[in-house]
TrEMBL record:
Residues 46-119 form the Large ribosomal subunit protein eL14 domain. This is Ribosomal protein L14. CDD domains: eL14. One of its GO terms (cellular component) is cytosolic large ribosomal subunit. It holds the Pfam family Ribosomal_L14e. Belongs to the eukaryotic ribosomal protein eL14 family. The lineage of its organism: Eukaryota, Metamonada, Carpediemonas-like organisms, Carpediemonas. InterPro entries: Rib_uL2_dom2, Ribosomal_eL14, Ribosomal_eL14_dom, Translation_prot_SH3-like_sf. GO terms for biological process: ribosomal large subunit biogenesis; translation. The keyword Ribosomal protein applies. Keywords: Ribonucleoprotein, Ribosomal protein. GO terms for molecular function: RNA binding; structural constituent of ribosome. It comes from Carpediemonas membranifera.
Length: 130
């Protein structure tokens, strides 16, 4: 099986751990075989050198040049709709759903629990009727 996600300039990444866990960033330059310079002007991520072990590569790639400045990167990401492409992917949908679940208050979680019980009961009735 061949690799499909290569470390390349413009590749959108998700931070795995650290203070910025879960944030999106773009590879701006490659330092060596294990470190890259990343930046996320539209996601609130500062430009810094990060280890590839701390990043997960996504399928989305922006068409940008090596060492692009922050303002031009933000403009390119906006024009190419890179963040929107990620949010339309399965990974992005899961990330948005997890953020929505995390923002629920106690009463909203209670309502979700009741809806799950109601759905489960309806499924059991449908199976019993077969």
């Amino acid at each position: 099986m061949a690799f499909k996600r290569f470390v390349q300039v413009g590749r959108l990444c998700v931070v795995n751990y650290g203070a910025e866990v879960g944030k999106l960033c773009v590879i701006v330059d490659i330092v060596d075989a294990s470190r890259v310079i990343v930046d996320g002007p539209t996601t609130g991520f500062e430009r810094k050198v990060m280890s590839l072990k701390a990043l997960s590569l996504t399928k989305v790639v922006a068409d940008v040049s090596r060492g692009i400045r922050q303002q031009k990167l933000a403009k390119a990401l906006e024009e190419q709709k890179v963040i929107e492409k990620f949010n339309e992917s399965t990974w992005g949908q899961k990330k948005l759903a997890a953020a929505k679940r995390a923002s629920l208050n106690d009463f909203d979680r209670f309502k979700v629990m009741l809806l799950k019980k109601e759905r489960s009961l309806a499924i059991k009735k449908a199976i019993k009727a077969m």
